[in-house]
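2024-03-11 09:14:02 INFO queue: dequeued item Prephenate dehydratase, len=282
2024-03-11 09:14:02 INFO validating residues
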Amino acid sequence: MSPDPRIAYLGPAGTNSETVAHCFGQRWSQPAWLATSTIAQVLHHVAQGHADYGVVPVENSLEGSVTTTLDLLWQLPDLYIQQGLILPILHSLVSHCAEINQIQRVYSHPQALGQCQYWLEEHLPHIPWLPTRSTSEALQYVQPEAGSAAIASPRAAQLWHLPILAQDLAADNFTRFWVVGGIFQREGTHTSLAFSVPANRPGALVRVLAHFAQAEINLSRIESRPTRRSLGEYFFCVDLEGAQTQPRIGAALDGLGRETSRLCNYGSYTITPVEIPVDCPN
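2024-03-11 09:14:37 INFO prediction written
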């Protein structure tokens, strides 16, 4: 482990990814921070050796999986999960408008727009939603465009010196992040895998899942994703409760190797909560 690691995350300043990255980086005295423009850039930085760790969102309690993260981990070699972190998400409506009914458009990341869709449909039903690459990037449209608003974190609004018009747009909102690096780990509370099964083989998925059922291993998540090679071809993402050092999980993984056409083992790791607000350097 580098004494002063480089940690990549989705920027700019004020994103939830930055909050989680700084929480993870508190264990070192002087980590280097690499703010990127997209989630894909975070993972490519780690894969290409430009960063030691990358912090990426993987699942939201309201909107589900972050498919960019799942798809790129399947495509990029030698990336492993180092830690899971769960962050409570607070969304605010940021605008110079004096009243909500003066807003003509709302900017934010697609995940944030989806998480706040019920609030937006109730309070701004006829206003266009315009996607940006991050919630903090959305704030750059608030200052120059009359009638514009952005959905971002309260901390981002503070950093950008912008007023908050409404708060808590989506209740019970949590996002799970993965810290990704190049070190394979066998210890932890959870294990994550991705696999594909032989084509045109009836019962192929059932045979894979049977290894977990027979060993009484709980799956906390299973989901299919297109391989992007041909229509109807999928790979499967699975989270297990437990570590690979446990004999029953190790034996199940050995069995998976015989049933799958490709198996990606992202390693074992521990999931911990992140408390907010988190003091992050600017």
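2024-03-11 09:14:37 INFO annotate: The CA atoms of residues 141 and 160 lie 12 Å apart.
2024-03-11 09:14:38 INFO item closed
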